[in-house]
Amino acid sequence: MNDPDVFAPNLNRRQSGVSATVFSLVPLQEKQIAIAATGVALPDGLAQIPLWKIPFLARRQRVWHARRNNEMIVGLLLKHLFRSRLKLVFTSSSPRKRGGLTRWLVARMDAIVATNAVNASVMPSCTAIIPHGVDTNAFQTGHSAIFGATEHKLIGCFGRVRQKKGTHTFVDAMCDLLPQFPEYSAVIMGRIQDADTYGADLAARIKAAGLESRITFEAEQPIAQMPKAYQSLDIYVAPSLLEGFGLTPLEAMSCGVPTVASRDVGSFNDQIVEGKTGFLFPKENANALTDALRNLMSSPELTDQMRSAARAHVVQNFSLEQEADALVELYRRLLASS
User: pTM for this one?
Assistant: First the structure.
């Protein structure tokens, strides 16, 4: 892409949810508008332009869409130091009130995008609320044995293994339920910090319950393998205590997996249709999670009904195409403004 109208920066070398969002959206958006990613760790085949070239492009109106503080800083430098004619956009996914630096940066943006009402409420101003979407073509129904062949039905909890993700709540519920449901096993997939005792404490709790063969830990999978991870499940659990948006329930439901998630965390309330695509429970309440899961585990008919309903709900309301379209509409408005 030699002369894009929109820049989608990725200035973090470590793969993250923000990076994945950029890499997923750009191929869809470039069908509608001249857009290119820029920065570091960009995958082959993605429309992109080297960062150093941007100051030397013809000075006309363009959009810089930042999703991190460092990307806002670079956008401001390009605009004011290198005199690039940029409209600056920032997407907020944090439910926390921002610190002084972030507030200073945000005040200098031309447009603010929030991913849900909670994000919008903690920002100084908000131009639009545009929820994240899921690539429903990649995350679709199917069957997988990525965790190995088993006769057991499988309940999964994915994400970093740490306090904020509520993995302990999931473990408590599984230690209670699995002895009652011998047809089920559980898998915890995600990165465990080597220096953190949290994962070791969970493993010790599982061993004390005699369930180490039925509650297993699996290594974090590459993004490309995530659909197979969800397709191996019968039920998915998102027990987080804090999320900016929280995409895993949508990914699971897009694969036709009924989902139980924490209430009032991230966008989970908007994502789950109570009793139709899954259940919500008060965060860090293992008893409530146990009750919600028991409803599903004891009723194969209900689980089957939720499979198709979950998939249809995501396709209709949370597709990646919908997110891409809404952002392109915003870019066009900014490009047309003086």
Answer: 0.91
In the numeric block, which tokens belong to residue 118? 């909670």
Give the pLDDT confidence of 288-314 residue by residue, as tens digits: 999 999 999 999 999 999 999 999 999
Distance between CA atoms of 336 and 49, rounded to whole angstroms? 23
Average pLDDT over the chain, rounded to an integer: 94
Could you give the CA distance from residue 202 to residue 198 in angstroms, rounded to a whole number?
A: 6
Q: Which amino acid is at 252?
A: A
User: Half-sphere exposure (CA, 13 Å, Cβ side) for 70?
Assistant: 8
Give the CA distances from residue 272 to residues 207, 253, 266, in Å, rounded to whole numbers and listed in that order. 32, 9, 12
Cα-based angle 71, 191, 9 (whole degrees, multiple of 5): 15
**Measured between alpha carbons, how far is 53 from 45 in angstroms, rounded to an integer?**
19
Residues 253-290 have pLDDT tens digits of 999 999 999 999 999 999 999 999 999 999 999 999 99
Flag whether pLDDT at 16 surpasses 90.
no
Maximal C-alpha separation, the chain: 68
Residue 176 burial (C-beta neighbours within 10 Å; 0-12, 13-18, 19+): middle
- Element housing 320 (H / E): helix 320-336
Measured in residues, the chain has a length of 338
